[in-house]
Amino acid sequence: MAPLLREVFFTLTFIHVFLHVADCVKVIVGDPFKFPVNCEPGESGTLLRVFGHNDISEVATCHSGKWTVKMYKDRMMINSSKIGFNRTEYNDGGVYELRFSKPKDLVQLEVVAAWKVSVVEDETVTLPCYFKTTGKAGLTVVWEKNGKPLCVKNSRSDGCSGTSDRLSMSTDWFTHGNLSLTVARVQPGDRGDYFCYVQNEHRNHSGNPAVVRLAVREKKAHQITTPATPVNVSELCEPN
């Protein structure tokens, strides 16, 4: 095999493995994150960061139930057998490999910036999200909170499926690319992080923005909804 073709083959194989094996996890920039691995007594292993083909660095090692941090020492937290970032930075996004006694696991961490929206209790608020739908077919929009779908909408449905009647999206979302979610009669329990993404037959894409962080204020006289404050632009969840 020619050197150029061999390099292309290995690159495509590397990308293919990550797209099909790595678990993709989104976290908001500045928030903490724990890796899904335990350093138990008698256990040994390594937490690695994969920057590219043949470019892998040790983040931390586990030996006899004790973590030893090699990278990000100012931000790495160890809580019992767990390890992770006490605060994430935007550049922390990427692929991490967990090499322990069991088969190695890949975690793709996507660090996203959230738009902040504040609303008074009992009022109506719109959580912004946009996606370029032109020339695309078979798309499904998904809004999630706490890992559970809140609103699922596609070209065959007119409203949010299987959710509260307080949630709605525009019926023209596909025409205009406006995937924004409207929450009516906001309650204190509605506060939290809302993730917006689009599904097609190949993979998931983050909406823009990928996350909206909703704060709910106690209802007082003459209070009105505060407009959304843009923080940053989300990126696709793709391997580095």
TrEMBL record:
Coiled coil: none annotated. Residues 103-215 form the Ig-like domain. Residues 1-24 form the signal peptide. It is found in: Cell membrane. SUPFAM superfamilies: Immunoglobulin (SSF48726). Keywords: Cell membrane, Disulfide bond, Glycoprotein, Immunoglobulin domain, Membrane, Receptor, Signal, Transmembrane, Transmembrane helix. It is a single-pass type I membrane protein. Gene3D superfamilies: Immunoglobulins (2.60.40.10). Pfam families: V-set. It comes from the Eukaryota. SMART domains: IG, IGc2. InterPro entries: Ig-like_dom, Ig-like_dom_sf, Ig-like_fold, Ig_sub, Ig_sub2, Ig_V-set, T-cell_Activation_Regulation. This is Ig-like domain-containing protein.
